[in-house]
Structure formats: C-alpha cells, structure tokens
C-alpha cells in the first residue's frame, strides 16, 4: 500500500501542477494577426473593444481568485501595455519542467513575440529552483515555430510530446525540444471544419494523470488516430473521445491541477456545458471540476488551458502563498 501511495504522489506532482502563472490583460482583444489559422477565434466590432477589454480583465481576476479558493497558487501578472493582444495565454511562450528546467519558445505571429517577459522568468527564479533556461526563440529568424504547451500536449509521466502539425508546431523544433527535454515526439495531422490544421494541440487534447480527453475525429489518418488512442490507453489512462462540436466549445482546452483537495480539472463554463452527463461522470472518478466563466477570453480562440502556464518546479517557499505574495 505504501508503494502505491508513493507512486500516486509522484504522478500527482509530475503531471498536475500545483501552481500556475496567469496574465491579466488591460487591453484585451482578439488578435487579428492570428485569425487566419485559428478557426476558433471570433470577430468583434471595433466599437466593442473597450467593453471587451473590461470584461476580460474581470474574467481573469475572478478566475485567479477561484483557483486560489481551491488552494492553487496563482502568480498573477498584469499586462498594461496593450501591445500583445494574446498575452492572456502565457503557456505558448514558456514552459517549466521538473528538475528546474524552463523553455522559451519561438512564436509564429510577430506581435506574440512581445509576450515574452524577463520579469516572469526572474519571478520563477526567485520563487522556485530554476537550474537552466533553454531559449528556442532564435528559431523565429529561420521561420521555425513551436508555441509551447499550446503546440504540444505533454505526458510528463510517460515522456511523450503529442503534437498536431501546424504553422505553430514545426517538426524540426519538436525534435530539438524532445531531444533536449527527453520526450518522445508524437506528431500527427489534423483538420478542422474549415479544412485546415488545428492551430494548437491543446485545443483538441488534454492529458490528466488517469485520463485523456481527445478530439479523435480531428486526427485525419485513421491508422494514426488509432495509434494515438492506443498509446494513451497503454499508459492505463481512460480515453474520453470528444466530438468536433465539443472541441468547438473548448471541451479539450482544459487542465488538470493538483491541490490538497486532490486532482482538479480547470475548465470553462462553455466546456463544462458541452460535456455529456456520461463524460462528466467518467471524469468525476478522477477529478473535481473547477468551472471558470470566461466567455470574453474565448473570443480570442483559446480557453482555460491556454490561460494557465503550469509550474512544474520545486518551490523555494510554500506554494500556497497569500494573494498579496502571488500578485506580481
């Protein structure tokens, strides 16, 4: 029994972060530079921009507070400059890994490259043990892009990097990351309703400790689709197939977190309402739902998973910091 419990604790800490970084935008709007290949992004009238920015600010503030109420440590940064409309999605430009490793990524859109912030990296170093920072951003000059844990959905336990090929997920960059960080690259082709690749893997796929949620219909090659499903099932996870309509409602853009309450699943109200009763019952065997209301943020084509940069690092101080300590 002790051995099983120790293994559970390892899995809990490796796959499910106990702390996250979030960015609160002051000038949010759906990014016109990313609309071409993001089928989930919505257009809004110019006159609504100020209202949208206010609502987005409030949604992030409330989401951070809700996560803190569930004992998730939230390091909340403000973006007051307004030069980076997608700054609310920080998981695309950096990721963290057990052992004190941090990666910085090459971004596809020019105005997204401004999202990288040295103050966030310094905060990580001050609050967690960081051994090294691997910077891939120079690959932008060669037209090679890999947008972090948007482009890759990482199985931290089995060391597999599931990746939907797209403008934002170059296979050369994937190979380099996988070699440096000891992951097995698992790339596959996808197609959305508009006939183009899914722009980010984490829109259609999420991996928890004991389950995986996958938009299987979006994987174009039937043989490869079955290989991905079997690869996940071989880890002992229960695979929950999501329909294209559920993916459109961001049911795949969710993140398992760890707290003293156990495993939590952070997801939007849009995603929660898209799940069937049977899917909810299945998931409740493994997680408790934490539902966040973020309809304005979702106008930009991303949801809860995109908003949360998980911190898989060892803290220098207790993670359950007060709100004052965690606001940056």
Description:
The protein has 328 residues and is α/β, with parallel strands linked by helices. The protein is 30% helix and 21% strand. It has 11 helices and 15 strands. A 3-stranded mixed beta sheet has the order 2-1-15. A 3-stranded mixed beta sheet has the order 3-4-5, with no helix packed on it. The chain has a 3-stranded mixed beta sheet with strand order 6-7-8, sandwiched between helices. Helix 6 links the parallel strand 10 and strand 11. The radius of gyration is 18 Å and the shape is globular. The relative contact order is 0.18.
What distinguishing features does this structure have?
328 residues; globular; 15 strands; disordered N terminus; 11 helices
What would you say about this model in short?
By secondary structure, this protein is α/β, with parallel strands linked by helices. The protein contains eleven helices and 15 strands. Helices cover 30% and strands 21% of the residues.
């Amino acid at each position: 029994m002790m051995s099983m419990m120790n293994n559970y604790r390892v899995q809990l800490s490796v796959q499910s972060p106990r702390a996250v970084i979030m960015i609160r935008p002051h000038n949010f709007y759906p990014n016109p530079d990313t609309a071409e290949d993001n089928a989930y992004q919505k257009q809004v009238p110019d006159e609504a921009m100020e209202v949208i920015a206010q609502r987005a600010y409030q949604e992030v503030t409330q989401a951070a507070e809700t996560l803190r109420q569930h004992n998730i440590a939230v390091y909340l940064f403000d973006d007051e400059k307004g030069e980076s409309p997608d700054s609310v999605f920080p998981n695309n430009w950096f990721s963290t890994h057990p052992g004190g490793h941090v990666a910085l990524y090459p971004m596809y859109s020019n105005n997204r490259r401004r999202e990288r912030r040295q103050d966030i990296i310094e905060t990580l170093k001050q609050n967690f043990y960081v051994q090294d920072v691997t910077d891939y951003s120079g690959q932008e000059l060669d037209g090679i892009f890999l947008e972090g844990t948007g482009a890759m959905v990482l199985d931290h336990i089995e060391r597999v990097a599931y990746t939907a090929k797209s403008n934002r997920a170059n296979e050369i960059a994937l190979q380099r990351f996988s070699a440096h960080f000891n992951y097995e690259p698992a790339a596959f082709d996808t197609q959305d309703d508009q006939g183009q690749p899914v722009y980010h893997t984490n829109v259609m796929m999420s991996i928890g400790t004991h389950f995986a949620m996958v938009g299987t219909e979006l994987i174009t090659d039937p043989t490869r689709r079955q290989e991905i499903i079997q690869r996940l099932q071989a880890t002992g996870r229960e695979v929950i197939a999501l329909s294209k309509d559920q993916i459109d409602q961001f049911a795949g853009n969710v993140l398992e977190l760890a707290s003293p309450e156990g495993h939590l699943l952070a997801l939007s109200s849009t995603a929660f309402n898209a799940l069937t009763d049977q899917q909810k019952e299945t998931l409740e065997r493994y997680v408790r739902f934490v539902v966040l209301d973020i309809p304005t943020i979702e106008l930009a084509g991303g949801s809860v998973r995109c908003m949360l940069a998980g911190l898989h690092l060892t803290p220098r101080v207790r993670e359950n910091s007060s709100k004052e300590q965690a606001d940056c």
